[in-house]
Design goal:
It is a single chain. With 213 residues, the chain is α/β, with parallel strands linked by helices. 52% of the residues lie in helices and 11% in strands. It has a five-stranded parallel sheet, sandwiched between helices. It is elongated, with a radius of gyration of 24 Å.
């Protein structure tokens, strides 16, 4: 991991804690930016790289758990909570809503670094998945209107002649459209195309699926 392929955001109102965490992360070759309030963090421009948010519970402007709730519907880095006032209900709430870890001060450097590495790995995976979905959506947009009609019929398991009859076209024309769909969607097989359609949540209007009777 290099210092320019990730970032760790730190939100803590204690200047000594912020400085210590930045120094710790720097010693591990990790890039960090620290904020003393949630408001400063929310307003800041953030680079589009895998990230982790190390978040204190008790902040001057908002409770860290409330910030977690407020940004839940946005794309935000996985959260590692740190607090000097930990309790079981808070930790349960934090983890239930997706936090990677909930560490009570004083915590060990090893525990914090393990949590941060896990958070960044999680964010990398999430970003890769989003990028793949975006690519599949672009492939789908490249289909012609007719090819978009063919796709759900094909993945529903209809035979070529059945799908052709459904659309009122010849079986040969259907086969051409089907081949184009496979190529444009970069599907290696019919099963692969079915998985792609499921990931894109394309409505299937026929009940006969691949492998069905």
């Amino acid at each position: 991991m290099t210092a320019d392929d990730h970032i760790v955001f730190i939100v803590d109102d204690d200047e000594r804690i912020r400085e210590a965490l930045v120094e710790l992360l720097d010693s591990h070759g990790m890039h960090a930016i620290a904020f003393e309030s949630a408001c400063d963090y929310v307003r800041a421009d953030k680079p589009d790289v895998p990230a982790c948010l190390v978040l204190d519970i008790e902040l001057p402007d908002i409770n860290g758990l409330d910030l977690q709730r407020q940004i839940a519907d946005r794309d935000h880095p996985p959260i590692v909570f740190i607090t000097g006032h930990g309790d079981i209900p808070s930790s349960v709430r934090a983890i239930k809503h997706g936090a990677v870890d909930f560490l009570t001060k004083p915590f060990s450097d090893a525990d914090l670094m393990a949590a941060i590495h896990a958070a960044i790995a999680q964010d990398r995976e999430k970003r890769a998945e989003r990028a793949e979905i975006d690519m599949l959506r672009q492939h789908y947009l490249d289909l012609t209107p007719r090819e978009r009609e063919v796709l759900p019929l094909v993945v529903s398991g209809l035979l070529n002649k059945q799908a052709a009859a459904e659309l009122g076209i010849s079986e040969v024309t259907l086969q051409i459209h089907r081949r184009n769909v496979m190529q444009k969607m970069a599907a290696a097989s019919l099963a692969d195309l079915v998985r792609i359609a499921e990931r894109l949540e394309i409505p299937i209007t026929h009940s006969r699926r691949v492998g069905g009777n």
